[in-house]
């Protein structure tokens, strides 16, 4: 071949123009911020603009040292981990269970209706979820408090939205409520892909419905479960698949439940955009990213070892 | 022989008993899920259709007690809210159309396996999918570009989505090459091929991406709060709702400590009105949610496919 890649490039100039438009976008909105993490190592003043990324005085690990010696850092870090791990533990299995139950539904119309309904919360903003939570749970007019009171389960209204001890349960349950249906799509698709012959053989052998779920469906969708698990482990600190940590902590957090609801992301926002300590906030954000990358790699390696199935 | 038969019938009996029990469990679980998802929306709806003062007495669970449309009338009398409604529709339409077009063109180029430097482009995309600079550097980039507090901050940063691009690439690859070839023979350039040949065949994937992007725009309060707060004209519906709810939440928390004061305040502020802050909030929430409820079921078969395509490893 005498034609070089460059000649090919020129011949495809119009396609290259389209592709490069996307690449330029990525360079500006993804790679420039990545370059911007050097803010974490210098003393940046916003007046200096983009060039100031590079010209600000270098301070090394000063911001990280400050962060680690901050007395509230331990609590904020623990809150981030607790929220993330609880969501992984409870939110992750729910779509799988839900898709198993959906799959066992025999009346097709009911099944279709349940699917459609279960997708609804995914499309609704966290702001609306916050509004719904206020109307259901608030200690003044919350309908759940009224019902519990009427039924005699509680003696006085519970402050679900303000006390720190209720923050994690409310966050986890609302996350399940919002994303369970959506993520069941993937598992339901995996179940639909199972060879019918396997079922028929199992039925002939006298396998019960539970046995079919346990011995056919679950092993068949294991690769899908592993892939989704890796994806959600990678986004663990962001709040798993839905990436809901920030919005939940920001919208459900307040001065009273702060001890449980303040997480790394809201802390970044507070010290960065509100207090104007941009370099310090970048350091907080960078630390979170580093942990996330480590989690992706580690979980991928673990998945490869356990099931011989990795993402990359 | 008899024994075998017996065993068989016992098996069928056991199966049918188990079957029935499982069906009962499924029925119960699904009823609970149904109620848990629908009731919160339904509750907001009935409160929004009930006279506000009356609703604050409590006890409304299933139907409005004093039906009224006053809450909605009041919501739509608020000029700031109407302005934010207009802004939300504008950014959703402009943002969605431009994002689908832009991402579509990029994806169309990337779907050509013989595109020069394609490997480099793909690598840049994948790396950008897994790594990010975080909020503050991103904010600084927006600031340096002069996007803060402009309409552009809604549209431009969401023009391109890597995940959406990959979905589109996968879809475009299912379109037969021969269609493109014959268009090329007729003298069409790539732009014409995209708009005349590819786009008409790609409506399912365009609808899916438009739904994802459109819902994102519709629901976004984040960019208003952090990137455009100083420009009142840019306030969106989701942002307004967030402000309403945050205020209500704070009042309710403060109310725990000073219940009397807050209810006195509420009565004082709107002595003649039948609506309350809560009933207005509910009406606003319904106004925000209804367009979504009206749109997404019709796109269901598309987005379900989209998620499935996306879950297949590239």
The appropriate CATH architecture of chain A is Orthogonal Bundle
% residues in beta strands of chain A = under 5%
CATH homologous superfamily heading of chain A: MetI-like
Q: Round the mean pLDDT of chain B to the nearest integer and report it.
A: 85
> Which class best fits the helix and strand makeup of chain A?
mainly alpha
Largest sheet of chain A: none
Q: What count of helical segments of chain B does DSSP give?
A: 16
Instruction: Report the uncertain regions of chain A.
Output: none
Largest interface: A-B, 102 and 102 residues
Could you tell me the strand content of chain B as a percent range? under 5%
Annotated CATH topology of chain A: MetI-like fold
Task: Please count the helical segments of chain A.
Answer: 17
Amount of helix of chain B: over 70%
What does this structure look like?
Chain A has 312 residues and is mainly alpha-helical. Chain A has one domain: MetI-like (MetI-like fold, Orthogonal Bundle). Chain A is built from 17 helices and no strands. Chain A has helices at residues 5-11, 13-35, 52-55, 62-69, 73-91, 93-104, 108-119, 126-137, 143-150, 164-192, 196-204, 209-220, 222-234, 245-252, 258-261, 264-274, 278-307. By secondary structure, chain B is mainly alpha-helical. Helix content of chain B is 75%, strand content 0%. Chain B has 16 helices and no strands. In chain B, helix 1 packs across helix 15, helix 4 crosses helix 8 (162-172) and helix 13 runs antiparallel to helix 15. At the A-B interface, helix 1, helix 2, helix 6, helix 7 and helix 8 of A face helix 1, helix 4, helix 5, helix 6 and helix 11 of B.
């Amino acid at each position: 071949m005498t034609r070089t890649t460059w000649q090919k490039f020129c011949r495809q100039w119009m396609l290259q123009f389209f592709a490069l438009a996307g690449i330029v976008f990525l360079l500006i909105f993804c790679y420039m911020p990545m370059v911007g993490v050097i803010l974490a190592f210098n003393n940046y003043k916003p007046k200096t603009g983009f060039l100031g990324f590079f010209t600000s005085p270098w301070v090394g690990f000063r911001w990280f040292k400050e962060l680690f010696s901050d007395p509230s850092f331990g609590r904020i870090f623990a809150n981030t981990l607790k929220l993330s791990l609880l969501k992984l533990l409870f939110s992750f299995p729910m779509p799988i269970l839900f898709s198993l139950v959906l799959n066992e539904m025999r009346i097709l119309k009911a099944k279709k209706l349940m699917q459609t309904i279960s997708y609804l919360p995914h499309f609704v903003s966290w702001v609306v979820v916050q509004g719904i939570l206020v109307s259901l749970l608030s200690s003044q007019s919350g309908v759940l408090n009224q019902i519990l009171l009427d039924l005699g389960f509680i003696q006085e209204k519970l402050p679900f939205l303000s006390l720190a001890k209720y923050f994690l349960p409310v966050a986890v349950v609302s996350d399940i409520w919002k994303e369970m249906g959506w993520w069941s799509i993937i598992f339901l698709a995996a179940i639909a892909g199972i060879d019918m012959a396997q079922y028929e053989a199992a039925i002939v052998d006298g396998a019960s419905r539970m046995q079919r779920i346990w011995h056919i469906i679950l092993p068949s969708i294991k690769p899908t479960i592993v892939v989704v698990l890796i994806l959600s482990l990678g986004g663990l600190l962001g709040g798993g698949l839905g990436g809901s940590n920030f919005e939940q902590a920001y919208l459900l957090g307040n001065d009273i439940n702060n001890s449980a609801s303040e997480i790394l992301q809201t802390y970044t926002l507070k010290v960065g955009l509100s207090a104007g300590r941009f370099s310090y906030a970048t350091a907080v954000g960078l630390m979170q990213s580093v942990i996330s990358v480590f989690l992706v790699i580690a979980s991928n390696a673990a998945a490869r070892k356990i099931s011989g199935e990795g993402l990359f | 022989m008899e024994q075998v038969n017996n065993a068989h019938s016992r098996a069928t009996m056991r199966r049918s008993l188990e079957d029935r029990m499982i069906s009962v469990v499924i029925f119960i679980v699904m009823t609970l899920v149904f109620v848990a998802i629908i009731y919160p929306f339904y509750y907001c709806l009935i409160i929004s259709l009930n006279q506000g003062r009356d609703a604050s007495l409590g006890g409304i669970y299933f139907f409005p007690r004093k039906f009224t449309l006053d809450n909605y009338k009041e919501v739509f009398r608020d000029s700031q809210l109407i302005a934010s409604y207009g802004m939300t529709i504008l950014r959703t339409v402009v943002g969605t159309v431009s994002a689908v077009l832009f991402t579509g063109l990029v994806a169309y180029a990337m779907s050509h396996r013989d595109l020069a430097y394609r490997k480099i482009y793909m690598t840049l995309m994948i790396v950008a999918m897994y790594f990010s600079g975080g909020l503050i550097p991103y904010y600084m980039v927006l600031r340096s570009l002069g996007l803060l507090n402009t309409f552009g901050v809604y549209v431009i940063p969401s023009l391109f989505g890597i995940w959406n691009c990959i979905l589109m690439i996968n879809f475009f690859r299912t379109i037969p090459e021969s269609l493109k070839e014959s268009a090329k023979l007729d003298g069409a350039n790539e732009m014409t091929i995209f708009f005349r040949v590819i786009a008409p065949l790609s409506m399912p994937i365009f609808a899916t991406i438009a739904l994802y992007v459109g819902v994102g725009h519709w629901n976004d309060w984040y960019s208003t709060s952090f990137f455009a707060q100083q420009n009142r004209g840019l306030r969106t519906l989701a942002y307004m709702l967030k402000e309403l709810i945050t205020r209500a939440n704070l009042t309710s928390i403060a109310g725990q400590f000073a219940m009397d004061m807050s209810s006195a305040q509420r009565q004082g502020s709107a002595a003649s009105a039948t609506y309350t802050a809560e009933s207005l909030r509910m009406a606003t929430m319904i106004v925000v949610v209804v367009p979504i409820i009206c749109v997404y079921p019709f796109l269901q078969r598309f987005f379900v496919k989209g998620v499935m395509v996306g879950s297949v490893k590239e």
